[in-house]
Amino acid sequence: MKVAVVGGGIGGLAAAVAFHQRGWQVEVLERAPEFTEIGAGLSIQPNGLRALQELGLADRVRSAGLADPLAGIRRANGNWLIRNDVDDLKRRFGQWATVHRADLIDLLLSALPARALRPGTEVSQVRPDGTVRHGGTTTADLVVGADGVHSATRRSLWPDIPGPRYVGYTTWRLIAPAHPVTESAETWGSGERFGYVPMPDGRVYCYLMANAPTGTRIGLDELRERFADWHDPIPALLNSAHEVSQHDTYELPELRTFAAGKVALLGDAAHAMTPNLGQGACQALEDAVTLAAAVDELGVRAGLAEYDRTRRPRTQLIARRSRQVAAPAHWTSPPLTALRNAALPRVPSAFFERSITPAYTWTP
């Protein structure tokens, strides 16, 4: 049996590893000239680590350095809006880890044979019979469309589905040199926010979001000025950074199905979501191990039906929660932000736990 995976990011490579380990012939078609990931840090939450455990790779991620969950959310002046019980979260749900995205790509690549990898291959069309066109032609018993939010696979088989929608804010990511940061936190202002996560090697992964028209481009100098009066260590992290990447933030409308013919959508191609819960990569890892198990054990037709039945409701729920959980951070009305700042510290912790529990409790 052969599987062709369109897209060599985290989800696509995880799917390739899962099928390879089950004895399938694997071919990964990646548009870029090499398999790598520019970007920055990545928080692997307990559900993501369980998916990596299914691939036999979780121990290597853990050995690189475990991490704590988000300590909470603060105001620009440093006062806490929400304070999480970090030890209780780990006790209830499991371990967290932080890695560089490129390191996770390298780990997944190490579990695949070189002959399975076809970089520099841009897919133009995918057909429901398992045919993939890319300058040449690949045929397979199963095609996995893991080619991101602007998926060619999705456009080929679901041409009438609305495309990705801009959510109203843009996102920057950077890695700052080593700083004495001992916990991760996110800070909310008015229509903008800043999060930071210590990495195992002492560096700090930072992410920033701000309301902006699509296509707006803002560089590091302007970001330093914009966040100059926010609480420590935010100004110092920005001042020490050397480069930043920026991407507008998109999500997909809910699809009616993740499968058609011999083709399945996976990761952002199926359910691109806002990064507010940090679940994008974790959900793609879940998709990968679930798809491989279902198809290998039930056959392609029944396996795809089972994959769609189990993954679509879950990922769409997580996407809705992700959209909702950070909406107050992007309010710009002074009365609304004042109400938010007054109300959030008084909300019982159980309210926030209910919003995150579905994400963390998944098991293969």
From TrEMBL:
The lineage of its organism: Bacteria, Bacillati, Actinomycetota, Actinomycetes, Pseudonocardiales. GO terms for molecular function: FAD binding; monooxygenase activity. Pfam families: FAD_binding_3 (PF01494). SUPFAM superfamilies: FAD/NAD(P)-binding domain (SSF51905). InterPro entries: FAD-bd, FAD-dep_Monooxygenase_BioMet, FAD/NAD-bd_sf. This is 2-polyprenyl-6-methoxyphenol hydroxylase. The keyword Endoplasmic reticulum does not apply. PANTHER family: MONOOXYGENASE (PTHR13789), PUTATIVE (AFU_ORTHOLOGUE AFUA_6G14510)-RELATED (PTHR13789:SF309). It comes from the Bacteria. Residues 2-321 form the FAD-binding domain. Keywords: Monooxygenase, Oxidoreductase.
